[in-house]
Write a structure and sequence with these properties.
two-stranded antiparallel ribbon; 16-stranded antiparallel β-sheet; 18 strands; alpha+beta
Length: 537
């Protein structure tokens, strides 16, 4: 080699790291070449892009600036500001949960320095959108956030970012909610801000938090801990960290890769802490007292994913729910919803439903309807409804015929077809007598299923074995479809022609970049897992 340095490469900042570089090197012809790569300096040579809604403005006093920064970071990360994080590479080190106390009831973590794979994916996705590409320039996402917030805050306008913030600010932020202090009803707030210089952070935070409600400040490892009182801040520094909370650690481990954003909450404890703000119905509180939520926002080159779990629910799920039926729908399906085990779940929960309806907060109209449906039309609840819901209920809309007078819409009921048809006949009589008119429902019975549709042709189509599951879009949007017990799928590419005409320029281009949406979940015992994916072209 000639010894000339390689051009700047945005995904590597480790001077000791060996990379394969596929751009031409002067005097050497086309790559690839492998050699130690030197750290580039100065702003990156590519154009930064950002997508997403405007950042909420900060309040002028109180803790508003902290909440505004949290909101702004979420907007930037979700909306594409993560492109800036591509210039960061470490992804490791101390996390906010390592310094916030174990008694934290709810927690949100934002990381502008996630794992390298997340940064590359963020960069790839962000470049697909142009709606707000000029909102951010330069190579420091923190300065971009600060400048945006400063436009709407008199307090921040008095702070110089380069002098008062940049020298000490890190890349991670944690927001914690704790139980109220003795004798008070409002939960306590704790914020962990990653810092690189303690002395500079102390001075800078004093300016940022001037007149604010978070008057306590202490330091733990590489973080500044802000709390409502100094005593609280000091206690958080010496307390066992949230990361050592067994429930928290187990839940986040089950979620997996924490991505750019992660969250956790003990719903039952939050309900207790919230006091009067929560429902007073003891039955409702009993159902959620052991519930915990955890999740993460992650990115891949072709999609963004919000994934998570719920544990400890008192709601009894189906004994043997079986899988969803989306993959057997016609390939021309534009949107569909499939839920397994609804019949079993309804049968188990019906006593609680009736108890709630007959309670102080219930509705007499519902109990009257149940009685009248049985007496006048022979509709037995919950038995007939359990029959209709069966083992699986799948509702579908076909892309073909969407512009017609009657779109192709249908439902596939995995149940006893003969019994289900009897229930449908009862419902048709009820609708006719109620003045809704005789519904036109096409029917097709199959092996262990009943199909109801808007036309006989579509009913027959739904009754056949379809190939939607072979679609690459479907496979990405609904991961592990065979194991899911509930799923929603929308193929935006198949329906965009019906809504794009109302948009022009960048707005139209941004919408065209959207490919599909998939939401899937699985329940096993008291644990429910979910995945929401937005796919991009």
């Amino acid at each position: 080699m000639s010894g000339q340095p390689l051009p700047p490469y945005p995904f590597n900042q480790d001077p000791d790291r060996t990379v394969s570089y596929r751009h031409p090197v002067p005097d050497q012809g086309p790559g690839p070449y492998t050699q130690p790569y030197a750290q580039p300096s100065g702003p990156p040579p590519w154009r930064q892009e950002e997508l997403g809604p405007p950042v909420p403005s900060a309040r002028k006093t109180g803790r508003g600036w902290l909440f505004a920064i949290i909101a702004a970071v979420l907007v930037v990360v979700v909306g594409g500001g993560g492109v800036y994080a591509v210039t960061l590479l470490s992804g490791g080190g101390t996390q906010p949960e390592d310094v916030l106390p174990s008694g934290t009831l709810a927690y949100v973590r934002v990381d502008l320095d996630p794992a390298a794979n997340q940064k590359v994916a963020l960069f790839t996705l962000a470049r697909k959108f142009s709606a707000t590409r000029d909102s951010f320039t330069g190579d420091d996402p923190r300065k971009a956030l600060f400048d945006l917030l400063g436009k709407n805050s008199e307090d921040l306008a008095k702070v110089d970012y380069a002098r008062d913030v940049e020298p000490w600010i890190g890349s991670r932020l944690g927001f914690g909610l704790l139980a109220p202090q003795s004798g008070k009803r409002t939960p306590q707030v704790a914020v962990a801000v990653q810092v690189t210089d303690e002395a500079g952070a102390r001075t800078g935070l004093a300016k940022l938090n001037a007149g604010g409600e978070l008057k306590g400040l202490a330091f733990r490892e590489d973080y500044a801990i802000l709390a409502e009182t100094q005593a609280a801040a000091d206690s958080y520094v010496t307390a066992a960290p949230l990361s050592q909370n067994a429930d928290f650690a187990a839940d986040l481990k089950a979620v997996g890769e924490p991505g750019v954003l992660s969250f956790w909450g003990n719903v039952g404890e939050i309900a207790k802490a919230a006091g009067a703000a929560m429902p007073t119905d003891t039955a409702t509180l009993d159902m959620i007292k052991n519930v915990r939520l955890a999740g993460a926002l992650r990115f891949d080159s072709g999609y963004a994913e919000l994934t998570g779990i719920s544990r400890g629910s008192a709601v009894q799920g189906p004994t043997d729910p079986g899988g969803i039926r989306l993959s057997t729908l016609p390939a021309s399906t534009s949107g569909a919803l499939s839920v397994s085990g609804l019949g079993d779940t309804l049968a188990k929960q019906w006593p609680q439903i009736m108890k709630a309806a007959e309670g102080p907060a219930g509705s007499q109209a519902f109990t009257d309807f149940v009685t009248q449906a049985q007496q006048m039309y022979g509709i037995a609840l919950p038995a007939d409804l359990v029959t209709l819901l069966g083992k699986n209920l799948t509702v579908a809309v076909d892309a073909q015929g969407l512009d017609g007078a009657v779109p192709n819409v249908g439902a596939v009921l995995t149940t006893d077809p003969a019994k289900a048809q009897e229930v449908v006949s009862k419902i048709e009589r009820f609708l006719t007598d109620s003045g809704a008119g005789a519904p036109r429902i096409a029917k097709a019975a199959g092996d262990g299923k009943l199909v109801l549709a808007s036309s006989q042709d579509y009913a027959g189509k739904l009754n056949e074995q379809g190939t939607l599951g072979d679609s690459e879009t479907f496979k990405i949007a609904i991961p592990d479809a065979d194991a899911a017990t509930a799923a929603l799928f929308v193929d935006l590419d198949k329906i965009e022609k019906y809504y794009l005409d109302g948009f022009h320029g960048d707005d139209r281009a941004n919408l065209q970049a959207l490919r599909a949406v998939g939401l899937s979940g699985r329940q096993s015992g008291d644990t429910t897992s979910f995945s929401l994916r937005v796919l991009f072209n």
